[in-house]
Write a structure and sequence with these properties.
The protein is of the alpha/beta class. The chain is 41% helix and 14% strand. It is built from 13 helices and twelve strands. It has a six-stranded parallel beta sheet with strand order 2-1-3-4-5-11, with helices on both faces. A six-stranded mixed beta sheet has the order 7-6-8-9-10-12, sandwiched between helices.
């Protein structure tokens, strides 16, 4: 059976093809009765909007790319789900690409994969430099996630330094004085690990706590085995922490295992807090305290920013920075909310 077309819907509903188009595009100047009749005809005939044709008529593909370092990291998997949901509200399809934190892969994504296949890109870079971003030219509109590499691009993130400071302050408020940072990395860089380490160190300094020379437990990666290995090395070397700030939940879950294997109780002996509020932390034993970024808001803001840039580029009539000045709207640096979620790994089990 041939796929129903707009003219078939118009004939069935007894209206013009233009009216059917107005209903499909949700134009306001259509009576509720007409809107109802057209929608009933659409449902009866099984008509589906040809999104590809619609996008191509506008000079676009209707596809955006989400580029993340690793798909099997729970944070990025959960974020991708939110991005897909937000994109669907704008009739956009999401192509998900794994960069492996490799600079060449991130550069290829930044260049639109060498074609006009995508209308825009949401990119979580780990290997790119600020110079890489400054040198880009003629690429699709791009929104960056994570730490800001430069001020010339739209950007969405939580305040990682502030969040780490608050998490460390929570451990200090519990009376913990020998707090180690699993995955801590002290450097002048702008990466997420660096920002979270700065927040941790700032909290210690504010409380006048001496920093142990080996307080930053280095990791090769940010997965559970890395967290377990880092904590095992520290304990075997004679360190006796009473608190752990883990730079993501994967590290924290690995740390819980290492502490258990060394006969240490959580939180009685060592309080543990992570980052990202991934699902696994809600089911670990004990359940994991964590910094919870608003992942739904990160996705919503990123998709909306990108959609605005795509529309802006297609219209060829850039919106002014202010009502009196010409030019494309200035890049936006959007900070999304986060909150501390306190569970058993710092607070102990709730009374029954």
């Amino acid at each position: 059976m041939a796929r129903p077309r707009i003219k078939d819907v118009a004939r069935h509903a007894g209206v013009s093809e233009k009216t059917v188009s107005n209903v499909i595009n949700d134009y306001v100047h259509v009576s509720e009765r007409t809107r109802r009749v057209v929608r009933e005809s659409i449902e009866h005939l099984g008509y589906r909007v040809n999104l590809a044709g619609r996008h191509l008529r506008k000079g676009r593909t209707g596809i955006i790319a989400l580029v993340v370092p690793e798909l099997d990291v729970p944070y990025f998997a959960e974020l991708a789900r939110h991005v897909i949901r937000e994109a669907e509200q704008l009739s956009l399809t999401v192509l998900i690409h794994q960069s492996g934190a490799d600079r060449e892969h991130e550069l290829a994504a930044l260049a639109g994969f060498g074609s006009d296949f995508v209308d825009g890109i949401i990119l979580s870079p780990l290997a790119l430099t600020a110079d890489d971003l400054r040198q880009r030219a003629g690429v699709p509109p791009t929104v960056l996630l994570g730490e800001l590499l430069e001020e010339g691009a739209d950007h969405v993130a939580i305040d990682n330094e502030k969040a780490a400071r608050q998490a460390t302050e929570h451990l200090i408020a519990l009376g913990r004085r020998n707090i180690l940072a699993v995955g801590g990395h002290e450097a002048p860089g702008l990466g997420t690990a660096e920002a979270r380490t700065r927040g941790y160190l700032a909290a210690l300094a504010e409380e006048g706590l001496a920093r142990h020379p080996d307080a930053l437990l280095a990791v090769d990666d940010f997965r559970m085995p890395d967290g377990a290995r880092a904590v095992t090395r520290a304990l075997d070397a004679g360190l006796r922490p009473d608190g752990l700030l883990c730079l993501n939940d994967q590290l924290a879950l690995g740390a819980l295992r290492a502490l258990h294997e060394h006969g240490l109780r959580v939180p009685e002996d060592v309080a543990v807090i992570g980052f990202d509020d991934v699902e696994g932390g809600r089911f670990s034993v004990p359940t994991l305290s964590t910094v919870a970024p608003d992942k739904a808001a990160v996705a919503r803001v990123a998709v909306q920013l990108l959609h605005h840039r795509i529309e802006e580029a297609a219209a060829l009539t850039p919106r002014p920075v202010d009502p009196g000045g010409p030019g494309i709207q200035a890049p936006q640096d959007r900070v999304v909310a986060h909150r501390l979620v306190l569970r058993e790994s710092t607070e102990g089990p709730e009374p029954r």
